[in-house]
Design goal:
about 300 residues; alpha/beta; Rossmann fold; 2 domains; six-stranded mixed beta sheet; 10 helices; about 35% helix
């Protein structure tokens, strides 16, 4: 279990990036979902020992890893949002270099371990190719290969699928799902699909605060039967807004606005049809509620619509 208590990070300015994070992350895959700038990367860097917290505590299986950072380094695999590779090195040599930097030792020798890791992430055929010829997905798989070296208890992956094409994203999903079978994998992302596919549980963060902790199923069920969709012309949109309808999102399709709305009483607006609630709907509603809570100067914890999911 990864336990985070009252974690605060204040940058000079001052800018408060984390505002008292409390979170319990069980073994398996756990998602941290939020927009860019929400504080996800700051949290990941503190957990990985790259950044010092202003206050708070972090425990991994009961041991305080903020006061003893060497403990987390021994048990951590980390794939940051931006991973620096030497483009002129081959994948095999790059991974060997990274494992030496990490101080990884292998009974059968480092060469055998590198081969095993490349096989595990499906890069054996590209082992002799230079990293500069790798696709974005291949680079991410090379990054996860170094992260899992040493059989870490905790693996942190920060925005791992951003920029990947659909095929590479699915391949990466499979690798992450396999890794989560016997360890803690903390997935930080702004992509709702990542959480929907991979995470039995997740938390939502906005402006350094946790605004909900739930599961994809619970999040959808909380708004099921209350989401409707219709198409409106631009001039009709203004009238629709004046009626103070709760618009989840509006997308322009063939010259008309395809509008999804949330109706707490389950009554469809005229011309709208009921649709299945999605995790994206739930997430966007949470973001709206959290923004309104801040604007009204009341705690964000009072706002989330996902009460069935155990809002933070």
């Amino acid at each position: 279990m990864l336990t985070i208590r009252d974690l605060v990070k204040v940058y000079p300015g001052p800018v408060t990036a984390l505002q008292g994070i409390n979170l319990d992350v069980p073994p398996g895959m756990f998602g941290l979902l939020g927009p860019n700038g929400a504080g996800k990367s700051t949290l990941m860097k503190i957990l990985s020992g790259l950044l010092e917290a202003t206050s708070g505590a972090v425990f991994l299986d009961g041991e305080d890893v903020l006061s003893k950072p060497e403990l987390i380094r021994q048990r951590l695999g980390y794939l940051p949002q931006e991973f620096g590779f030497y483009p002129h090195l081959t994948g095999e040599k790059m991974l060997t270099y990274l494992l030496k930097l990490k101080g990884v030792e292998a009974q059968g020798g480092l060469k055998n371990l590198v081969a095993e890791l490349l096989e595990r992430v499906n890069l054996s055929a590209a082992a002799k190719r230079r990293v500069k010829t790798y696709s974005g997905g291949m680079r991410q798989r090379l990054g996860i290969a170094q992260a899992i070296a040493g059989d870490p208890r905790l693996i942190i992956v920060d925005e791992p699928t951003a920029g990947l094409d659909p095929e590479e994203r699915l391949r990466f999903y499979r690798i992450l799902a396999e890794l989560a079978a016997d360890r803690i994998v903390l997935l930080s992302t702004h992509i709702v699909e990542d959480v929907a596919v991979l995470c039995p549980r997740f938390a939502v963060i906005r402006k350094g605060r946790l605004v909900a902790q739930t599961s994809p199923t619970e999040a959808r069920q909380a708004i099921d039967g209350k989401v409707f969709e219709g198409r409106l012309r631009s001039d009709e949109m203004e009238e629709f807004r004046r009626r103070q309808m709760r618009i989840i999102q509006s997308v322009l399709v063939e010259g008309k606005n395809r509008v999804r709305v949330y109706q707490p009483d389950g009554t469809a607006p005229f011309g709208f049809e009921p649709v299945a609630a999605t995790l994206e709907d739930a997430y966007l509603l949470l973001m709206q509620d959290a923004a309104e809570a801040v604007a009204a100067e009341r705690p964000a914890e009072e706002a989330p619509v996902l009460s069935a999911g155990g809002a933070a």
